[in-house]
């Protein structure tokens, strides 16, 4: 699995290293529950093949829960995420359900902040080459990882805007040394497991916070002389991602920039239905598809489950490396191979990929390809 580090943080003290992994499952809103079920089936099948067990327990959170119960993220769910070995989270939010200030319901962002999940890992890989709109004349595949800082940057101003009557509203942006150092070391370590190339994306020519961000990056870079580094302003990076996406290895950037560029990256490989992700902290990690709740197709049984299934694979690898359990790592690789094979045969191509497969049919195709 090219998109993950060779060494995730080891398991925290007191964690059981038995045959069962405990997963907190947050099915979310819209198509969230529709893609969660298939991902859990794939997890169960992989567990049976590779000799471990999965204990998955669902917990409420999201816009629907807020609409019905007046809270988007119950404390009991937060506690469950903290106790679990890992969390599998589906998309959350509904366009017609908002807080009183008209902002969206986004418990996934709350969880990142609560648990300090600084490393947003967004793999961008050509899982289905036919769906890639850009082709390299030299035949190289798109295969890079965007690491998005997920707790600071412009997002830190969420709910803290400063209003000057109805004349202006000011948001704040924050970059701290502590979080940036963790982010950069994480990204350099990831680059060491791949092609040893790391690109910093910022706007250091305009914003003081980004100049500070770059200065910290330069300091950490000195600790990794074996990794080649590149520095791009975010606007230039957006252009380069279209002109030469196959040239990137690992990219690291601020929260808002990463939010935007990860969607651009998904577009380069066929869409958000093929875009898994993980939000990594010191002790807690949450894995989720990069796509939204897609309320326009909810309930129709046509949502693409691939991103959710691939997020589950990323979760297994993270757990396997923390536990030093090769069974989980082999299961993660097997799920990836099964997704690629099912997409390549056409059996798992849903409508967003130009196919006709339903959610259930796509998941069944992956299950049929899953082997030890």
From TrEMBL:
Its EC number is 1.1.1.85. Keywords: Amino-acid biosynthesis, Branched-chain amino acid biosynthesis, Leucine biosynthesis, Magnesium, Manganese, Metal-binding, NAD, Oxidoreductase. Pathway: Amino-acid biosynthesis; L-leucine biosynthesis; L-leucine from 3-methyl-2-oxobutanoate: step 3/4. GO terms for molecular function: 3-isopropylmalate dehydrogenase activity; magnesium ion binding; NAD binding. It catalyses: (2R,3S)-3-isopropylmalate + NAD(+) = 4-methyl-2-oxopentanoate + CO2 + NADH. Transmembrane segments: none annotated. GO terms for cellular component: cytosol. GO terms for biological process: L-leucine biosynthetic process. Residues 22-366 form the Isopropylmalate dehydrogenase-like domain. Its cofactor is Mg(2+); Mn(2+). Homodimer. PANTHER family: 3-ISOPROPYLMALATE DEHYDROGENASE. Belongs to the isocitrate and isopropylmalate dehydrogenases family. LeuB type 1 subfamily. This is 3-isopropylmalate dehydrogenase. It comes from Minwuia thermotolerans. The lineage of its organism: Bacteria, Pseudomonadati, Pseudomonadota, Alphaproteobacteria, Minwuiales.
């Amino acid at each position: 699995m090219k998109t993950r580090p060779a060494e995730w943080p080891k398991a925290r003290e007191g964690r059981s290293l038995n045959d069962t992994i405990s997963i907190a499952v947050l099915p979310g809103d819209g198509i969230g529950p529709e893609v969660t079920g298939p991902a859990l089936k794939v997890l169960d099948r992989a567990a049976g093949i590779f000799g471990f067990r999965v204990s998955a327990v669902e917990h409420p959170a999201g816009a629907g829960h807020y609409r019905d119960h007046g809270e988007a993220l119950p404390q009991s769910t937060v506690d469950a995420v903290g106790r679990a070995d890992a969390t599998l989270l589906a998309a959350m939010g509904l366009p017609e359900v908002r807080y009183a200030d008209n902002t969206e319901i986004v418990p996934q962002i709350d969880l990142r902040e609560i648990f300090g999940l600084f490393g947003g890992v967004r793999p961008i890989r050509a899982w289905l080459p036919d769906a890639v709109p850009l082709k390299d004349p030299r035949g190289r595949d798109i295969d890079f990882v965007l690491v998005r800082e997920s707790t600071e940057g412009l997002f830190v101003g969420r709910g803290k805007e400063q209003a000057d009557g109805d004349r202006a509203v000011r948001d704040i942006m924050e970059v701290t040394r502590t979080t940036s150092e963790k982010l950069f070391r994480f990204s350099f370590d990831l680059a060491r497991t791949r092609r040893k190339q790391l690109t910093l994306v910022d706007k250091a020519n305009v914003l003081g916070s980004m100049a500070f961000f770059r200065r910290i990056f330069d300091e950490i870079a000195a600790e990794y002389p074996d990794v080649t580094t590149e520095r791009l302003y975010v606007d230039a990076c957006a252009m380069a991602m279209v002109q030469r996406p196959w040239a990137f290895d690992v990219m690291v950037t601020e929260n808002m920039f990463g939010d935007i560029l990860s969607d651009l990256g998904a577009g380069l490989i066929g869409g958000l239905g093929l875009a898994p992700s993980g939000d990594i902290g010191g002790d807690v990690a949450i894995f989720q598809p990069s796509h939204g709740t897609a309320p326009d197709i909810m309930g129709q049984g046509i949502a693409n489950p691939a991103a959710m299934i691939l997020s589950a694979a990323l979760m297994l690898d993270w757990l396997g490396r923390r536990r030093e359990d090769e069974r989980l790592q082999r299961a993660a690789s097997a799920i990836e191979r099964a997704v690629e094979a099912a997409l390549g045969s056409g059996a798992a191509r849903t409508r967003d990929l130009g196919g006709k497969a339903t959610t259930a049919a796509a998941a069944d195709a992956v299950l049929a390809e899953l082997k030890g």
